[in-house]
Each structure stands twice: as structure tokens, then as C-alpha cells.
Amino acid sequence: MLWKIIALLLFTAFFSACDANNFLNSFLKKEKEKTRIGLSIPTLREARWQRDLKYLKESAVAADAELFTEISENNAAVQEQQCDELLKKNIKVLIVAPHDAKAAASIADKAKAAGIKIISYDRLILGADLDLYVSFDNVKIGEFQAKYITSKAPQGNYIVFSGASTDNNAKLFREGAMKVLAPLEESGKIHIVEDAPIPDWDSDMAEKMTETILAKYNGEIHAVIAPNDSTAGGIIRALKKHHIAGLVPVSGQDSDVEAVHRIMQGMQAMTIFKDSHNLASAAISAAMSLAAGEKPFSNAVAQNGKGQIPAMLLEPVVVDNSNIVPTLVQTGYLSREQVYAVNENEGQPQRRTFNINNVPGNTSAGY
Fold first, then answer.
1. What is the mean pLDDT of the chain?
2. Is the same domain home to 202 and 149?
3. Which CATH number characterizes residue 209's domain?
4. Do 172 and 107 share a structural domain?
5. Number of domains composing the chain
6. In the chain, which ranges are continuous DSSP H helix?
7. pLDDT (tens digit, 9 = 90+) per residue, 64-121?
């Protein structure tokens, strides 16, 4: 009888231990299972995308999510192939900053077909069903750029550059800028001598295009709407060759450290601060909500040719020489060392009086 009791106790202890181990293994497995998020961004050639990737990774770690990242280097076909691979990684959400807004529709369609939530990051994917669009108010950015530049150059010959034609944001920036510029052109106060996109937001291409226009108009250009800081850099290199850098107000966007240096030197008039940290945090937070079956926060809608897409639009901020420290340094976006590491060999711009006798609608000798 005694041996039966001992056997029963050993049997119970054995299965209790097994249950405990099973429970422990199950618990540990759940602990190891993180929300899997796919991320596709177009390039790392620009400082702003380097920052975005850094902040997206940090936000994913903070949210205890596993982030799978691909960089397409401004190639729509490569971006689609990379996203095909991301969809195979058992991800719950795919975040895409499209290189080509229209071509990326097939990426979104595939994600939807696979039951994976899709977030369009910074740039809007066109012609596809999306769960969320996370960006800044891009029309307002264009308005801010044009209002600032026209306050510095209220008359004269204008170059209006927009970003890549494949990027819907470029269209929105120009739309906002033309709200300000079109009435001034109609009144004859300004004359838009060139209105063109810059392929792939390429700085070298911006420089070459500006050189061509400057040669055509004998350097008589009085303002340039540059869509971002990278293209502004190329434009200003061309202006330097004609010895008018710092005398022609040039806009920008992204608050790159090089642009901040140019602003402090008087070479670039302004930039737009779009806090990449906030944008990245918003995107990852939204992805976690979607993965959990919840509806993420939105404060607007975006029309993308497919329907009304819920949107989370953040506020942009104008930055010039008057607010670099409180806007960029005190917020931690750039360090004081970065901001004040200015190349003193660049020199300071000199004042210049423009000859605008050939500008339509102008009768004064200068401004």
C-alpha cells in the first residue's frame, strides 16, 4: 500500500512540474513575442531621413516593438521588392514612406490583401486604401516658405522649385506656395521666371538647374523658393558662383544642420522645422494601436484618389536667425556644438542693389 502512495505522489509531482514548466515556457514565449512592424523609407542620402530612421528605431524600442527596416535608395521597383519581403516577416503593420506616391499603391494593396495594416509615413501614397497617413501640414509649409520669402523680396524675378514629381508632398508644398505667389504675380509685383520640379530632390541637380536659369537671366534673380534644405544647398552653391549668395533670399525645409549654418551666415533665409522625433513617435504609436486592433488618433483627412484617408498632421515651425536656439537647440533637436560649428571661411554676404528695370510691373530702381 505504501508503495502505491509513493508512486502517486511521484506521479503528481512529475506532472505538476511539467505544468509549471509549460506555464513558464508559455509565459516566456509571450514575453519574447513583440509586435512586429515593417518599415520602408526611400533614402538615407538626406540628413532628415537619417534622423527619421534613428527616431523610428528609438520609438520602436521604447514601445517594445520589433522593427524590420528597408531602404530603397529612391527606387520604386526596389521599394516594392523590399516591401514584398517585409510582408513575409509576420509583421502586423507596414509603415511606408514612398519614393513614388503612385507606384507605392501596389505595396499598400498587397499589405491589405495579406491582412496587414498600412501607414503612409510623411509622404502620402496615392490611389490605395490606407489605415493612416502621418505627416505634417504640407500645404501650410509651402505657404510659410512663400510668405517669408516674399516679405524679404516683395518684387522681382522668382524661381519656384518644387521637389520630385513622384512625391505628393512636393505637389502640396507648391500648392501652398502658389496661394501666396499667384496673386503677387497677377498684380505684377513678382515675375516667376521658372517653375519646375527637382528630380529626386537632388542637390546637384538643383545647382545645375539654378546655374542654367541664372545664365539665362544674367543673374537677375531676386528670390528662390527651394522646397527643402538639400536643394537649397545646391541652389546656394550656384548663387555663390554668381557672387549673389546671401543677397537672394532662399527658402528651405527640414532644419538640417548645414542649413542652420547657412542661415547664420546669411546665405539661406529660413527653413522649416518638422520635428522628426514627434513624427516617428506618432507613427510607431499609431502602429501599436493598429496592431492591437485599436483605432489610432487622427486630426484630419487626406484625399489620395482612393477616398478619405484618416490623417495625423503635425504643425511645422518657421526657423530663421531669430529663433534657432529656442526652436532647435533648447528642444534638443540639434546640439549647441552642432549649431555653432560654423565654417568661418564662408565669409559674410554683402548688400546689393538689384537692377530690376526689366521686371514686368516694376518702375523703381531697387529695393
1. 88
2. yes
3. 3.40.50.2300
4. no
5. 2
6. 2-32, 47-62, 76-87, 105-113, 138-152, 168-186, 203-216, 229-241, 257-265, 276-291, 324, 336-340
7. 999 999 999 999 999 999 999 999 999 999 999 999 999 999 999 999 999 999 999 9
* Chain-centre distance for alpha carbon 361: 37
**Same domain assignment for residues 205 and 305:** no
Q: Which residue has the cell 518684387?
A: 155
**Is the pLDDT assigned to residue 6 strictly greater than 60?**
no
Residue 249 near residue 269 (C-beta atoms within 8 A): yes
Asked whether residue 75 is assigned to any structural domain, the reply reads yes
What is the DSSP secondary structure assignment for residue 253, as one 8-state letter?
-
Q: Do residues 284 and 60 touch, judged by C-beta distance below 8 A? A: yes
Q: How confident is the model at residue 19 (pLDDT cuts 50, 70, 90)?
A: low
109 burial type by CB count under 10 A (0-12 exposed, 13-18 middle, 19+ buried): middle
Helix (H) or strand (E) holding 245: none
Q: What are phi and psi of 161, to 5 degrees?
A: -100, 140
Task: Give the pairing type, strands 300-303 and 308-314.
Answer: antiparallel
Domain membership of residue 191 as a residue range: 139-273+318-346
